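>> received
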Amino acid sequence: MRQLNPRHDATGRFQALCLGVAGACLLSLSAPAWSAYKVVGPDGRVTYTDRPPTSQAAQPVRKGSADAPGATLPYELQQLVQRHPVTLFTSKECAPCEIGRQLLRSRGVPYSEKTVDTPEDIRAFREREGSDQLPTLRIGKQQLVGLQQSEWNSYLDAAGYPQASALPAGYRAPAPSPLAPPPARNDASTSAPRASTPPAPPPGGNAPPGFRF
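>> returned
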């Protein structure tokens, strides 16, 4: 388990394991209407919608894209990804992070990975997760801080994820992305010519009596 700083957060333990989660994952008989737009929020969180948003951060989702939730996945996994999305928070040179990553891959769990490497990432991680420890795993609303393989497996089982991989042979997981994406560069501001500084007025001039420049 990697700790971002020496202080201890009073986060406590999280909610007890909900054994009924798997039973709640009832599959719909009709095919889902998948989202057509991906929206990246200011905090880096990705959401999907079938309506064209007004924000410029919205991107159309290509059919078959690995970024689309459930793209190229079996129907059962598509339902699980929508109900209980899995997010893994990692950082560089973090051995427990790699072990957790391999655990998810060995079970064939579709997940998104957010890296916490820069000061901006760390600040966003503390604000969003209230923790300083990596890896951290999100399974729907459940937060698991630190690597406890038995605990991770228990929550994945409760959410309904299969213990053996059911991913198709050609499935490719989305590439890791920073939790706090760097701000977009404004090329217009860098290429715009700078306004020349007006010359200073001559001493005295038409200034009122007693006024100093």
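>> The chain has a mean pLDDT of 74.
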